[in-house]
Design a protein that fits this description.
Layout lengths: L5 E3 L5 H12 L5 E4 L12 E3 L5 H7 L5 E4 L8 H15 L3 E7 L9 H14 L4 E7 L3 H8 L3 E4 L11 H16 L9 E4 L7 H12 L4 E4 L2 H7 L7 H16 L8 H6 L6 H6 L4
Parallel strand pairs: 1-2, 1-4, 2-3, 4-5, 5-6, 6-8, 7-9
Helix pairs in contact: 1-6, 2-3, 3-4
Length: about 280
């Protein structure tokens, strides 16, 4: 059996880039799909330009590809339309299986507004005729570290908990699945994996852990929904983006993200990184 060709989207980003490197290290030589060739890593030998919203270019970029790692497109008002175009292109190009980074609890009624887009993207993949595997990531642990770096986590999360997952664990899980698929292992066909960290934490607990590990005081400032919109009103961004920002916290408050699974460990064979683990790692 010949080695299947794997394509990785978002290959200059944190998740896609890490997956691409792990596939390279496993001898699978992925094709990297990028928007700007100049940003592709120096080691890349097979690079194609692909825009999610341009079906013809995407078909060409995906020619000969068997397995596709599809990182969700950058947040935008038309992200779902971009996803649908790209999925149609993948099917036209003859892609056999897509591994897609979705979101935990994706549904049309999800409190986190962007999780709704993920649900409809999943539906497009189910209807595409291609094989699929969904990675439903929780919020990234790295994200909370980034927003807490200024000393405050501010939003209407109440006392809700989130089983946040490290980006590194998402990349490792995705790479493990793609390696299995490349060998003809079909256990991931039609599977949905909830990817989380080892425990769920409140924003208050997150702030306490950040303070303890870094030695820099971090606090959680709880807002009402009205206060959250008011405090973000000065940003020159569209309403859909502010809704996404605020619903990040309200989704935690509802308990929808209070989920802990063992999927990372089952897929990678290693214990997932906690917030404390990630904070304790040397920063680049």
């Amino acid at each position: 059996m010949s080695t299947p060709l794997i394509a990785v989207t978002g290959a200059t980003g944190k998740i896609g880039g890490a997956v691409a490197e792990q596939l390279r290290d496993a001898g699978l030589a992925p094709r990297l799909l990028v928007r700007d060739v100049s940003r592709a890593p120096a080691w890349a030998g097979d690079v194609s330009v692909a825009d999610y919203g341009n079906e013809q270019d995407a078909v060409q970029a995906l020619s000969g590809v068997d397995l596709l790692f599809m990182v969700s497109a950058a947040e935008s008002e038309d992200r779902l339309e971009q996803h649908r175009i790209f999925i149609a292109a993948a099917a036209r190009a003859g892609v056999k299986h897509v591994v897609y980074t979705s979101f935990l609890g994706a549904s049309p009624q999800a409190t986190f507004t962007l999780a709704r887009t993920h649900w409809y993207t999943e539906e497009a993949l189910r209807d595409s005729g291609m094989g699929y595997t969904f990675l439903r990531d929780s919020f990234y642990t790295d994200f909370f570290i980034e927003i807490g770096a200024e000393g405050s986590i501010t939003g209407p999360a109440g006392g809700g908990r989130v089983g946040a997952v490290a980006r590194a664990d998402v990349a490792a899980a995705a790479a493990a699945i793609l390696k299995d698929l490349a060998t003809g292992d079909r256990r991931h066909d039609g599977a949905t994996y909830d990817l989380t960290g080892p425990q769920a934490f409140t924003m208050e607990e997150a702030a306490q852990i950040m303070t303890e590990v870094t030695g820099r005081r971090t606090v959680y400032h709880e807002e009402t929904v009205e206060e959250a919109y008011a405090s973000r009103a000065h940003y020159d961004v569209p309403d859909w983006e502010k809704d996404a920002w605020v619903s990040t916290y309200t989704a935690i408050a509802t308990g929808e993200l209070d989920v802990v699974s063992d999927a990372v460990e089952r897929l990678t064979g290693r214990h997932p990184l906690s917030l404390r683990d990630l904070l304790s790692q040397p920063r680049p």
